[in-house]
């Protein structure tokens, strides 16, 4: 009778929340109210639930939204819409975890336990109930802790773990003691009565069913709970199991007195009372209302798709028709019950069908009995396993929790260790970086000195060359002035003396020579003066050094090089450091062009702007990707030199369009 009893115990905890939760939104309140109107059709109630959900889901993730979502889930529960119920529970759980709301997290765990329990996934259901229990235990929330333990006890009862269910019930009763929670106390007493009924301890079953009835407050208990009718039915079942059918019938009859409310709020309970009343009368051989009561129950159960109830009704009808010697109908209902039980994998009720078939068909009794024994053994093993499984889940969950605590401690210690190492590493890095910066600064200072020395050497070398050139020029000038001009002057004097001869042709010729000699004398004097007038600024001349670089480029490479240096640039106003950096930039640029550009022509130009010196180097080569090139060492060196000059650097290039480098340095 276990599965028959399961239906009598309907968990009504969700409806209580619906009586107290309110909303400031008129539409939401209206939808919620209409969704809970038991007189409306299922389709209409589902539509109202969807409308309410559409409003709530757009609310911010706060306690009000989560409370409203739970209300939506309760309405899905009342409709037995488990898919909708599960969807809402998952949403609330995610929102609650995001907000660190442990109360809503625990409640969502309970709802998920309900869902998996309804789907027959008992281990998952037990795990979620146990998670909820642990949270409530940590929060010292005795009321919700008792509810969580009640949920566990109900699940254990459904899985025939009666001893485990009994323990969970008494744990719940201990924590609920002193609390104003008649509804929970009622459910605990009622479930305990069912447990003792299954264990065959009928006196205790009657005791706790009476306690359950005594805990009902007609003024505060919602009519849709139908708690009194449920307890009356369960009490009648105890007497039925005691074969005291005369005592059982008044309980069933009294339970059916609320027929109108039962049909509206608890049709499965109404079908159950009809079947139990009819079956008790059958056992007493009282034909009153038979087989009508049994058929009414079957029809209602079939319309509600209550698989277990349909199996029980058909077995009772089979027994009834067998007693009337209508073997055909008796076999029909027994076989239908067995088929339904096997299809729905309800092996416990399959035992009842096999037992009935063995009685109706004695010739096949051995076959039925063999199958009965096989299924019964499997059920006993499964029941032992499920009890062990629940214990193991509790143990493993606690163990995981302890492991998580240990892991948290380990992680905290690791954070401290790694944090200390990180701080020490950063400290060492800062020291090392500072030392590196100091070395870099010293290196730059040394490099600056070296650059100065290199430039001075280049200037000195150029000065030596220029000194030799000037010396040579002076020697040539002296030779021209003292030697050639002296002799030319002598010739002119001689010719001048010949001019005294008045021969007409001779005189004309001599005058020609004299004129020519005067011209030669003037030309030589000008050359002499020009050679002697070499400007002293050639010494330390940066332009000459750059020109030498250009001459080397022209001699060595095939590219045509055109250079232009603005004569208005006052090089003496620029520091040697800046000059050497500009020289190196030109040198590096020419080297890159020679290596990679494959250019036909190169143009280098120095221009004077208001306060700046502009250097532009361009070529008509293959070009390159500027973004990639910025990582090159040569380009980085050029940028570094520009920074030392407090100047700016710009490079423009595209593949196939050549390259333009522009450097601007303040004068």
TrEMBL record:
Residues 510-537 form a coiled coil. The chain crosses the membrane at residues 414-431. Its EC number is 2.7.13.3. TPR repeats lie at residues 186-219, 229-262. GO terms for cellular component: cytoplasm; membrane. CDD domains: HATPase_UhpB-NarQ-NarX-like (cd16917). Keywords: 4Fe-4S, ATP-binding, Coiled coil, Cytoplasm, Iron, Iron-sulfur, Kinase, Membrane, Metal-binding, Nucleotide-binding, Phosphoprotein, TPR repeat, Transferase, Transmembrane, Transmembrane helix, Two-component regulatory system. It comes from Flavobacterium soyangense. Member of the two-component regulatory system NreB/NreC involved in the control of dissimilatory nitrate/nitrite reduction in response to oxygen. NreB functions as a direct oxygen sensor histidine kinase which is autophosphorylated, in the absence of oxygen, probably at the conserved histidine residue, and transfers its phosphate group probably to a conserved aspartate residue of NreC. NreB/NreC activates the expression of the nitrate (narGHJI) and nitrite (nir) reductase operons, as well as the putative nitrate transporter gene narT. One of its GO terms (molecular function) is phosphorelay sensor kinase activity. This is Oxygen sensor histidine kinase NreB. Residues 475-667 form the Histidine kinase domain. It holds the Pfam family HATPase_c. The keyword Nucleotide-binding applies. Its cofactor is [4Fe-4S] cluster. It is an enzyme of class 2 (transferase). It is found in: Cytoplasm. It catalyses: ATP + protein L-histidine = ADP + protein N-phospho-L-histidine.
């Amino acid at each position: 009778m276990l599965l028959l009893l399961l239906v009598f115990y309907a968990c009504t905890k969700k409806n209580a929340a619906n009586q107290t939760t309110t909303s400031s939104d008129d539409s939401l309140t209206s939808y919620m109210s209409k969704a809970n109107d038991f007189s409306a059709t299922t389709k209409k109630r589902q539509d109202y639930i969807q409308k309410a959900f559409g409003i709530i889901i757009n609310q911010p993730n706060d306690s009000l939204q989560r409370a409203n979502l739970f209300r939506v889930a309760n309405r899905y529960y009342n409709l037995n819409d488990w898919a909708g119920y599960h969807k809402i529970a998952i949403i609330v759980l995610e929102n609650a975890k995001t907000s660190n709301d442990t109360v809503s997290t625990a409640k969502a765990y309970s709802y998920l336990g309900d869902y998996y329990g309804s789907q027959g996934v008992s281990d998952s259901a037990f795990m979620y109930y146990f998670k909820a229990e642990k949270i409530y235990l940590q929060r010292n929330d005795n009321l919700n802790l008792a509810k969580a333990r009640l949920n566990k006890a109900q699940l254990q009862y459904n899985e025939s773990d009666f001893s485990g269910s009994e323990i969970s019930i008494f744990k719940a009763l201990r924590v609920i003691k002193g609390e104003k929670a008649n509804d929970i106390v009622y459910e605990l007493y009622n479930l305990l009565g069912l447990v003792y009924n299954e264990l065959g301890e009928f006196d205790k079953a009657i005791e706790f069913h009476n306690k359950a009835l005594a805990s009902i407050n007609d003024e505060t208990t919602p009519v849709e709970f139908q708690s009194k009718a449920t307890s009356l039915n369960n009490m009648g079942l105890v007497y039925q199991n005691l074969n005291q059918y005369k005592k059982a019938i008044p309980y069933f009859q009294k339970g059916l007195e609320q027929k109108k409310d039962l049909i509206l709020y608890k049709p499965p309970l109404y079908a159950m009372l009809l079947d139990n009343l009819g079956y008790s009368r059958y056992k007493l051989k009282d034909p009153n209302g038979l087989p009508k009561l049994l058929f009414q129950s079957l029809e209602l159960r079939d319309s509600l798709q209550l698989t277990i109830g349909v199996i029980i009704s058909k077995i009772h009808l089979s027994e009834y028709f067998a007693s009337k010697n209508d073997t055909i109908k008796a076999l029909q209902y027994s076989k239908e019950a067995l088929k339904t039980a096997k299809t729905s994998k309800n092996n416990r009720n399959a035992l009842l069908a096999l037992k009935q078939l063995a009685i109706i068909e004695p010739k096949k009794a051995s076959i039925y009995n063999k199958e009965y024994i096989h299924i019964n053994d499997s059920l006993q093993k499964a029941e032992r396993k499920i009890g062990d499984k629940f214990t193991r889940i509790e143990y493993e969950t606690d163990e995981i929790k302890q492991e998580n605590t240990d892991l948290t401690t380990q992680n905290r210690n690791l954070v401290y260790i790694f944090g200390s190492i990180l701080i020490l590493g950063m400290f060492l890095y800062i020291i090392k970086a500072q030392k590196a910066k100091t070395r870099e600064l010293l290196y730059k200072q040394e490099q600056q000195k070296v650059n100065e020395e290199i430039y001075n050497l280049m200037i000195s070398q150029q000065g030596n060359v220029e000194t030799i050139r000037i010396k040579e020029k002076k020697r040539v000038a002296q030779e021209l002035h003292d030697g050639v001009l002296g002799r030319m002057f002598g010739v002119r004097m001689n010719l001048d003396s010949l001019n005294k001869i008045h021969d007409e042709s001779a005189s004309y010729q001599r005058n020609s020579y004299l004129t020519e000699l005067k011209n030669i004398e003037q030309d030589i004097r000008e050359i002499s003066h020009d050679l002697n007038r070499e400007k002293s600024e050639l010494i330390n001349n940066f332009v000459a050094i750059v020109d030498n670089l250009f001459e080397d480029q022209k001699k060595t490479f095939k590219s045509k090089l055109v250079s232009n240096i603005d004569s208005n640039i006052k090089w003496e106003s620029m520091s040697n450091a800046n000059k050497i950096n500009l020289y190196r930039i030109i040198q590096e640029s020419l080297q890159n062009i020679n290596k990679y550009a494959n250019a036909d022509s190169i143009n280098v130009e120095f221009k004077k702007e208001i306060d700046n010196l502009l250097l532009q180097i361009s070529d008509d080569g293959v070009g390159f990707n500027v973004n990639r090139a910025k990582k090159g060492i040569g380009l980085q060196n050029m940028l570094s030199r520009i920074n030392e000059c407090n100047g700016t650097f710009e490079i423009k290039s595209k593949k196939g369009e050549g390259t333009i480098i522009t450097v601007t340095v303040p004068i």
